[in-house]
Design a protein that fits this description.
By secondary structure, the chain is mainly α. It has 16 helices and two strands. It is 71% helix and 8% strand. The longest helix is centred in the N-terminal third of the chain and has 33 residues.
Length: 403
């Protein structure tokens, strides 16, 4: 876990300890009581989210599936643990959880998926009932009564949000809506369930940073070239192997599928638009990595992505790389340093890319000692990335010297 991440998670126990001390100091203060309630509410939300995701995980295994990845929270990953068959990841904001539960295509998936999806909300309902029962049996006005009542309320809220609410995140659907789709809509069709399985497996391989496994798996899927998400993930596999011509080809192919409407697996609306902007950013990054000189075209692609999903670190890093190569090198340098800070807890491959572009920026600014340091760090992170970018940077330097 990063130092920043440790500070973030330590905030919870510090809030609780501080609030408890202040309550004892001034027991009649409404302000300290509210602060204590907020602190415990935050901690109990984390506990409820963990219980929710563990229920998905356990039921998926019990009904014959697998759970290759469990993510607690959202935002930047702070701590990652690779278990025997599952990748566990904790992120900065514990307001959301994701459990990737998959079932092989040769099994009937419908009821297994329904049971797995319902398990999270039902776990929160059971915890809420237990906590409220304990609160009822505890002495009125006691701390135990307060804690049990608060835990019951938190789990009740999570139960209703999971099964009856909606998630305001591009590409994500609540458990309740997914259950409804499986029971009553056409997404319960076996072909689409198999498609979801293949996409899920490829994405888990991406999370685990296994590029060749992504390539082999996606190419083994039937009709993968007709799937936007499978083509996108196949491109990520090639990118991680520094095969940028193939990466660019499959990102452009995925964008063509999206624009033509040939792949109807992505619903119209936020999710489809989100994927479009990600693909445009990926195409811009691929053209940069291949040394394309059409700066206007690349700028246009990145500007579209920045305007809509500028919070994504990958988009900001691409914008920084565009500034370094075609625009304001100083601004690009500062932006790339900020992106590198975001990637410090991410993959070494992404950090190596950032250091490679930093080396290019330092060379343009005639800051040679820093360029050498960036080169050494890029090599230490991922020697394959630096081996690819080094000839490109040398060509850029020779062109600049000739001009």
């Amino acid at each position: 876990m990063t130092r920043k991440g440790r500070r973030f998670w330590l905030l919870y126990p510090l809030l609780i300890v501080g609030s408890e001390w202040l309550i004892r100091w001034q027991p009649d203060s409404i302000l300290w009581f509210l602060l204590l309630a907020v602190a415990w509410y935050s901690v109990m939300t984390v506990m409820a989210v963990i219980a929710h995701e563990l229920a998905h995980f356990t039921v998926a295994l019990l009904v014959g599936g697998q759970c290759p990845a469990v993510i607690i929270g959202e935002g930047k990953p702070l701590w990652t643990l690779q278990g025997r068959n599952t990748l566990w990841q904790f992120c900065t904001s514990p307001t959301l959880g994701l459990a990737y539960c998959l079932f092989p295509p040769d099994k009937r998936q419908r009821w297994r998926l329904v049971a797995t999806l319902a398990a999270g909300g039902l776990m929160n309902l059971c915890l809420a009932m237990l906590a409220l029962a304990l609160a009822y049996s505890a002495p009125s006005g006691s701390q135990w009564n307060f804690y049990c009542m608060l835990f019951g309320v938190v789990n009740s809220l999570l139960f209703f949000l999971a099964l009856f609410g909606s998630i305001k995140r591009p590409g994500l659907v609540s458990d309740g809506r997914r259950i409804w789709a499986l029971l009553f809509a056409r997404t319960s069709d076996q072909v689409e369930q198999n498609y979801s399985y293949h996409v899920g497996m490829a994405y888990v391989l991406f999370l685990r940073a296994q590029p060749q496994a992504i390539i082999d798996y996606v190419q083994s899927c039937p009709d993968f070239e007709r799937s936007i998400l499978l083509c996108q993930l196949l491109g990520y596999g090639y990118s991680s192997n520094c095969q940028y011509a193939e990466f660019l080809y499959w990102q452009k192919h995925a964008l063509r599928l999206l624009q033509s409407g040939e792949d109807a697996s992505l619903p119209e609306g936020d999710q489809r638009q989100f994927v479009r902007y990600v693909l445009e950013n990926n195409i811009a990054y691929g053209e940069l990595s291949l040394g394309y000189e059409d700066g206007d075209s690349i700028r246009e692609l990145v500007a579209s992505a920045m305007a809509q999903i500028g919070w994504e670190t990958a988009v900001r890093a691409t914008q920084a790389a565009v500034d370094i190569r075609f625009g304001d090198t100083d601004r690009g340098l500062q932006s790339m340093l900020a992106s590198l800070a975001d990637y410090q807890h991410g993959s070494a491959h992404n950090r190596a890319i950032c250091y490679s572009f930093l080396c290019e920026a330092y060379q343009k600014l005639q800051r040679l000692p820093e360029a050498v340091a960036a080169m050494e760090k890029a090599t230490a992170c991922d020697a394959k990335v630096w081996a690819y970018f080094q000839p490109l940077l040398m060509a850029q330097s020779e062109n600049a010297a000739t001009d």
